[in-house]
Amino acid sequence: MAAMVHGAQIVAIIVTLFLTSFSGCTLAADEDPLQDFCVADLTSQINVNGFVCKDPSAVKADDFTFTGFRNAANVTNTTNGFVPTPAFVQQLPGLNTLGLSILRSDFAPDGLNGPHVHPRASELFLVVQGKIEVGFVTSNNTLFSQTLEQGDVFIIPRGLVHFQHNIGGTAAVAFAVFNSQNSGVERLQNTLFGSGIPDAVLQKTFQLDVAIIDQLKKAFSTSTPSNY
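Now predict its structure.
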């Protein structure tokens, strides 16, 4: 089941990163840096919009390196057959202030990354193995959906509800590149039924019986929202 990323796929990912970060037509969502780098000091107790810069004299090559994409995640016994492996600033401190992050997505057969929103970033979704159906919904309730195979890319605009579903019958792997070091995520089921919105509001909104609303709230108030 282990999915390996081969040389051509790595090249595609690197090209994607550069296009996302430096293209004149694709501006980073975060503020531009004012120095060569600002490696995140993850131990600092100072709160800023991002992370405090590490002392440059203490910076090492490891601060710019992440090796967590080498092997497939274990998708066995997961609820939706989907496991994200992020390389955000917490895992890759050198990303701090660069307006960029990347995530590996491993899907079991029929695995699903259900409807969710990234409030702070657009997403470039690159399939490197398998067949994945992706789609997003616009603010006028129009669905744009596509079936992607190895080497295909799909763009998801910032702040729009979207999903990814492995429909190929075998394990699938994809990479998501974000134009923010912290894209944020809101999963619709947790936001609606696990956040404490009053029953009366949900009942009137969805035109459902109180008993059904209670079941949904019990299901999603006890689940832990992902950080992706």
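Strands lie at 82-87, 101-107, 112-117, 123-129, 132-137, 143-148, 153-156, 161-166, 172-178, 186-187.
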